[in-house]
Specification:
The structure holds 2 protein chains of 2 kinds. Chain A is 37% helix and 22% strand. By secondary structure, chain A is an alpha+beta fold. In chain A, helix 9 links the parallel strand 4 and strand 5. In chain A, helix 8 (120-136) packs parallel to helix 11 (262-277). Chain B has one domain: Mth169, Chain: A (2-Layer Sandwich), CATH 3.30.1280. Chain B is α+β, with helices and mostly antiparallel strands. Chain B has 2 helices and 3 strands. Classes of the chains: A alpha+beta, B alpha+beta.
């Protein structure tokens, strides 16, 4: 795109003031209006470097120009109660939440969807690397990662390519970095065939005093780039890779991707930790999408300052890079620090100790202007806020989808229901062995789950739990969820359901839900029906957060996940962070003792639309998703917390996809222990048939096992708090079967084999 | 054994972490005259008979579509190894 430039033909601000010329704004993804706006801001044409900066920073991926008006709800629909623990909210690299004992947690999910389709290994690997640097830039030590994956149909030949590459990439980067991967999700559906989703979440822990912000506030401070050298990685990756839909031909266009180096990142983490400990820096920003363009303009804009940069000082891997390319390069494992001159020596010592290369690019200016020079020539002179903050905002048109009424009318009511016991038993096994409900250890066992020695819970438990303070036992739980099918049926309700499930998962581990992050994966914002889905989903999530009294701390939007006219299911991944006083009190998801009573908490309604049962048994999607009631979710969460503090809960497992049947399967297989189950009382109390009892996906439900000695107290507690409770069985360690009375004795070994072998059979 | 040799290198534009690590190690061992290292791979295809031009053409196709990842790698050479 750009020719190699000698000093004489660099496009300078002087040239731009004196001579106009045609510029490739359209090829860079800008609209005519946006290009005109840049000319108005500068009162001249932009130089080619400025054009590169604006185009990449105003891309959908960096500017959130289509989503901003809806994301504002997360900052507006809040109460004081919700913000009580919030130290840093929306807008920074990641939100920060107080967890007590002088500690705070920062966490965020980000998408790396398009790069992971083009080059699954490097795309997924650099997705992990990128989100870890986001967490690092808040002043935190990264302690765990998780991944939310959506792949195409399991049998499709291209799915294996993507699955292998993505899982290898995540494990290669995360394991090399020495971070435990404590959970996540894997879903297969043909709707993600050409648009797999690779979302990566990272969690970090910091002391309150170590909090860092991406701000350059003190004029005269030095701007230092450190870490890996700058090369031609993913040039234009942000604007071109992330904001354009694939052609029908699929992956034939092959732009440069980024290659990650986890060992370089590990050194970068340790060097940064030492910078924080010795209080050497006054501001820091990671380099991700849009590279130096983004880091310089954001640091300056956030601090209400400017910056003066000598671009020749950037250490290069390839000396032939042009200024425009250097500004746009997405080379990995780089950070930018703002350092006071008196701390330079300490900074240099730390860099030398860790053998990290660095170069001083320039200094912070008092005036709000970003000046970049190439030798003596000025190639950029712009107000930083116009690049980083005041990008155009669009209210895209929104249309109620033409197809949705028909989809909602096509409910699962008409689907035949089995009454024959052996057939019902077969359905339980069929669902438990379907790709989406099957055991995911073929994937998760490729990740290191226990490195660092603080993992209290991980897959397949309800949430991933990490001990944060080794002395007190203080810990955190993370869970993420999104059900694309529910969202396709009703995006408002679907987003709430994602929140409800993640909230419930966290609560079932014994932790108290405290904060929310999200990664909103949608089709093209230029499609009004997709925009309607986005509007509904964000509104649902914001409303749900108010109802659950839990704040959104940040998030990420990924648009253009579509091939041709077919968009993915709306997939708003919701992550909930919880806090537990002592990880020794964690609640496992399976039963381990004999003779414990098994209780079903909550009310079961006949809610099978969008369920795993409808999908697996009948290949059906239609109707309305389950109802969601956060009052009930909170009551359930409070009950589990209260009962757990008194040591009454031996195990707890949330009921979601696949219904009660799937929860029973998972709780017995967790530790390979049997149980006897009866459903008569439940069916009678809730007025439902056997299919609904086993497979309904009604919300605010869980199964818990309780020891005999606590039985009366536990039942009393539920009744006092108004949480519906019914005894549905008893654990039996002598038995090697999941016995559902009147239906079947399902042998645990057979059940396990069915549950576990699906993924290896498909992919190994 | 008659062979066709396929040589593959990481694309010039992209980071080569393995090469970088080796270059650093070389420098630490005192070889300051070496500025950079890039590491690719050499693949030997063994044939029962002396490969023909047709085999070579097919090997070139395989090198491009199967043996290399064209997103991040370049095939730099595909040739019949001289038996002598």
């Amino acid at each position: 795109m750009f020719k190699k430039k000698t000093e004489s033909n660099v496009d300078t601000t002087k040239d731009a003031s004196s001579e106009d010329k045609d510029q490739p704004w359209a090829e860079l993804g800008l609209t005519q209006d946006e290009y005109q706006l840049i000319r108005e801001i500068l009162n001249r044409r932009p130089t080619s470097s400025e054009l590169a900066m604006y185009s990449v920073m105003w891309s959908e991926h960096c500017s959130y120009k289509s989503s901003k008006i809806y994301l504002r709800q997360f900052g507006q629909k809040v109460t004081d109660e919700m913000n009580k623990h919030l130290m840093v909210g929306m807008g920074e690299n990641a939100g920060v939440v107080d967890i007590g004992e002088g500690l705070a947690v920062t966490f965020k999910v980000e998408s790396h969807n398009h790069p992971s389709y083009i080059e699954p290994f490097q795309g997924a690997a650099t997705g992990v690397g990128g989100i870890v640097r986001d967490i690092l830039s808040m002043g935190a030590r990264p302690v765990a990662v998780m991944d939310q994956l959506r792949f195409g149909a399991p049998e499709h030949p291209d799915t294996a390519r993507v699955v292998h590459g993505v899982v290898d990439g995540i494990s290669n980067y995360g394991n090399s970095l020495g971070l435990p991967n404590i959970g996540g999700e894997t879903v297969f559906d043909a709707r993600y065939q050409g648009n797999p989703l690779v979302n990566a979440l990272a969690v970090g822990v910091l002391k309150h005093d170590d909090l860092k912000l991406a701000k350059a506030t003190n004029p005269g401070d030095l701007v230092i780039l450190f870490g890996a050298r700058t090369g031609a990685d993913g040039i234009g990756g942000v604007s071109v890779l992330a904001s354009e839909t694939f052609d029908d031909d699929g992956p034939s266009r092959r732009p440069a991707v980024q290659v990650g180096d986890p060992f370089a990142e590990k050194v970068l983490i340790e060097a940064c930790m030492e910078l924080y400990e010795l209080d050497v820096i006054s501001g820091i920003q990671d380099l991700g999408g849009a590279g130096i363009s983004c880091a310089t303009s954001e640091l300056a804009a956030n601090g209400d300052r400017g910056m003066e940069i000598q671009l020749r000082n950037v250490l290069l891997r390839d000396e032939s890079l042009t200024p425009e390319e250097i500004l746009m390069s997405e080379s990995q494992e780089r950070m930018m620090a703002i350092v006071n001159k008196r701390n330079l020596k300490k900074f240099e010592q730390i860099m030398n100790k860790w053998e990290v290369e660095y170069s001083i690019l320039g200094k912070v200016l008092a005036d709000e202007k970003l000046v970049i020079r190439w030798d003596e020539q000025e190639i950029v002179n712009v107000p930083p806020k116009t690049v980083a903050i005041d990008s155009p905002v669009y209210e895209r048109s929104v249309e109620y989808p033409t197809w949705i009424d028909e989809l909602n009318a096509n409910s699962s009511e008409s689907l035949p229901r089995e009454t024959e016991p052996s057939e019902i038993a077969a359905q339980i096994i069929q669902i438990a062995s379907s790709a989406n409900q099957a055991d995911k250890s073929w994937i998760t066992s490729q990740y290191d789950r226990y490195v660092l020695g603080n993992t209290a819970l991980s897959m397949p438990d309800d949430g991933g739990m990490i001990r944060v303070n080794e002395e007190s036992g203080l810990g955190i739980t993370m869970a993420t969820d999104a059900n694309g099918k529910y969202c396709q049926l009703d995006p408002y309700q679907g987003a709430k359901l994602a929140l409800a499930e993640a909230y419930r998962n966290v609560a079932m581990t014994g932790a108290r839900p405290r904060a929310v992050t999200n990664c909103l994966n949608f089709g093209s914002p230029e499609n009004p029906e997709v925009m309607w889905q986005f509007k509904q989903a964000t509104t649902g999530l914001a409303d749900g957060c108010v109802e659950a009294s839990i704040p959104v701390t940040g998030g990420n939007v990924s648009f253009y996940n579509q091939t041709g006219d077919v968009a993915i299911y709306p997939t708003p991944v919701v992550g909930v962070l919880g806090v537990i006083d002592d990880v020794a009190r964690r609640i496992p998801s399976g039963w381990q003792d004999t003779g414990h009573n098994i209780y079903l908490l909550g009310t079961t309604k006949d809610e099978l639309d969008g369920s795993a049962w409808a999908e697996v048994i009948h290949d059906h999607l239609g109707g309305k998703p389950p109802e969601v009631d956060f009052q009930k979710e909170m009551e359930l969460a409070d009950l589990i917390h209260g009962a757990n503090i008194q040591g009454m809960v031996a195990s707890a497992h949330d009921i979601s996809e696949g219904g009660l049947a799937q929860a029973l399967v998972e709780s017995s297989l967790r530790f390979g222990n049997g149980a006897r189950i009866w459903l008569g009382e439940l069916m009678e109390r809730d007025g439902i048939d056997l299919t609904a009892a086993l497979f309904s996906e009604s919300q605010a439900r869980a199964i818990v096992s309780v020891g005999r000695e606590d039985d009366v107290k536990f039942v009393g507690l539920c009744e006092a708090r108004g949480v519906p409770i019914v005894r549905i069985g008893v654990t039996d360690l002598e038995s090697s079967a999941l016995e559902i009375q009147g239906i079947a004795d399902i042998d645990l070994l057979e059940l396990k084999s069915a549950h576990v072998r699906t993924l290896p059979e498909l992919f190994s | 054994m008659p062979k066709i040799i396929v040589e593959i290198m990481p694309k010039q534009d992209l980071l080569d972490p393995q090469g970088k690590a080796v270059a650093n190690a070389l420098k630490r061992a005192g070889n300051s005259e070496i500025d950079a290292t890039r590491i690719g791979k050499r693949i030997e295809l063994h044939y029962k008979e002396q490969p023909t031009e047709e085999d070579l053409e097919k090997a070139k196709e395989l090198a491009k579509d199967f043996l290399s990842n064209s997103v991040i790698e370049d095939v730099v050479d595909v040739y019949i190894e001289d038996q002598n």
